[in-house]
Design a protein that fits this description.
The protein is 54% helix and 9% strand. It is an alpha/beta fold. Helix 4 (82-93) packs parallel to helix 5 (112-121) and helix 12 (235-257) packs antiparallel against helix 13 (261-283).
């Protein structure tokens, strides 16, 4: 099983909307922070839900660092034992062609031996600046609350304090909805080209709907939906189907929180009403006036 992969130093497709050219205040603030951190060799911890762009952010930090011309190596922590991790660090910390940055994906998956190995591999504060820059830069990522992992005894406190001296939190897509139209246009262009399909047209109502979803899978989930729109070339049908899917998720969550039959009946009624509205909108090409007339 391949446990590491050297990441190409080319910009990822969504780079220009992850940082820099963004409409959301949260990402603009993140860009300013990254600009200050990138030129250093300080270990960084990237925190965020699945699909928020932690790996792309690690690429951007590496490219803007003093070691941007050296390889960026991704280490999938879930696949590594402490022994293999030690060998891996030794292999990338010495000699020509060493890694410029080691990206530790989901660091909370490391076992205790791996955590100890990593702790002793991180640059120590007592080193001179020139000594610290000899080894690779460490960037870790996690979707978990590491403070809770420390309290539960699953993660070393001393390692947590070492890697979280500087942490960067990526906001979920539902908190940066201003950027959704840009992402949609990017993915429409990408998959129309890759799949050799005509580029679908989305109207203002489609974008209102897209910005109203909660996107639990974040940018990755949005990309999958846009790819389906390109494949089927039917935005209304895809978005209607996705709206029903999201409604089912919300109903499941609401039902799990309470055993009240009255609550369950109300939720089921809401779902039926939502389904009827969506079907009427789909039949009338999202003409709200005609849909309302049909539902009377």
């Amino acid at each position: 099983m391949q446990v590491t992969s050297q990441i190409t130093l080319m910009p990822a497709p969504a780079d220009r909307f992850l940082l820099g050219q963004t409409n959301s205040a949260a990402m603009q603030a993140l860009e300013r922070t990254v600009g200050k951190l990138a030129p250093t060799n300080i270990p960084l911890l990237l925190i965020g839900e699945n699909g928020t762009g932690k790996e792309i952010l690690a690429q951007q930090i590496h490219q803007r660092s003093l070691k941007g011309t050296q390889p960026l190596v991704k280490v999938i922590c879930a696949f590594l034992s402490g022994e293999s991790l030690s060998a891996h660090f030794n292999g990338h910390s010495n000699g020509d062609g060493q890694a410029g940055t080691l990206f530790l994906k989901e660091i909370s998956e490391l076992d205790h031996i791996g955590q100890r190995t990593l702790l002793y591999s991180l640059p120590q504060e007592e080193r001179t600046p020139s000594e610290q820059f000899r080894g690779p830069r460490f960037i870790s990522s996690t979707t978990r609350n590491l403070e809770e992992e420390v309290r539960a005894g699953r993660f070393r406190a001393d390692l947590y304090y070492q890697i979280s001296a500087v942490s960067v939190t990526l906001p979920p897509l539902r908190r940066r909805t201003e950027d959704i139209p840009d992402f949609v246009e990017l993915f429409l262009a990408k998959y129309s080209t890759l799949l050799g399909r005509p580029r679908p047209h989305l109207d203002s109502q489609d974008f209102v709907l897209l910005q109203g979803f909660s996107w639990p899978g974040n940018i990755r989930e949005l990309e999958n939906v846009v790819r389906k729109i390109v494949v089927l070339n039917d935005p209304k049908a895809v978005l209607s189907q996705y709206a029903v899917h999201m409604t089912d998720i919300h109903i499941t969550q609401a039902t799990a929180k309470t055993s009240s039959l009255k609550r369950a009946a109300r939720v089921a009624s809401d779902r039926t009403e939502r389904q009827l509205i969506l079907e009427a909108l789909a039949r009338t090409c999202w003409n709200r006036k005609r849909a309302a007339q049909e539902l009377q």
